[in-house]
Amino acid sequence: EPGATTAPLPEEDCMKLNPSFVGIALSSLLAIDLWASKRLGVCAGEGSAWGSARPLMKVIEVSGHGIPWLLGTFYGLCQTDSSAAREVLLNLLFALLLDLVMVALVKGLVKRPRPTHNKMDMFVTISVDKYSFPSGHATRAALVCRFILRHLVLAVPLRVLVVLWALIVSISRVMLGRHNMTDVLFGLLLGYALYGVVEHCWLSPATTPTLFALW
């Protein structure tokens, strides 16, 4: 009506009509992440572009799974008679458990769903594994890679192989359609950071005598 004043828009409507630059940038990055991840999921199914390589990718997947690493580390602890080896293995076990807890916490908080083209046929999963962010395999690969390079005396070719393994495990997560690229990138950063925590809290006979007495 003439002379009537227009009521101001609610604040939330104003925000929707005038989105911030940061919001637009984040939305654009998310869209690019989803698009690129789907394009790179060339082994997501048997009918995918590289579907014939899917069995090999799943073997790589198992190589970065937490259960083989935990069982292998625990077996090594039970078999070794060397105090130095026992110290390294105990800290590797601590690192693997820390990795599992941190990844589960972040997944439970973020609750990002898996990519739509992912087939849920992974090797041994738990409840939070239905979520995608971050990639536990990438986190573990970065953590184990740093740990091995720091605490095992290896020839240069073997050190290169360890780094390549970590990279291949991480890349395979996107190729299999398990994760988006940002899941893997954050996982690598988280694993790299977790190694610093392990070094800071290094377990030794001097700091945790009771723990070492059990072995």
Task: Write a brief structural summary.
With 215 residues, the protein is mostly helical. It has helices spanning 11-17, 21-40, 54-63, 66-79, 83-110, 136-151, 156-175, 181-200, 209-213. It has one domain.
Number of E-type strands: 0
The helical percent reads 55-70%
Strand percentage? under 5%
Number of domains: 1
Question: What is the overall shape?
Answer: globular
Structural class: mainly alpha
- Please state the CA-atom Rg, rounded to the nearest Å: 22 Å
Report on the architecture of this protein.
The mean pLDDT is 89. The longest helix is centred in the middle third of the chain and has 28 residues, at 83-110. It is built from 9 helices and no strands. The protein has one domain (21-214). Helices cover 65% and strands 0% of the residues. The radius of gyration is 22 Å and the shape is globular. The chain has 215 residues and is mostly helical. InterPro entries: PAP2/HPO, PAP2/HPO_sf. Belongs to the PA-phosphatase related phosphoesterase family.
Layout of SSEs?
Blueprint: H1 11-17, H2 21-40, H3 54-63, H4 66-79, H5 83-110, H6 136-151, H7 156-175, H8 181-200, H9 209-213
Name some characteristics of this structure.
215 residues; mainly alpha; 65% helix
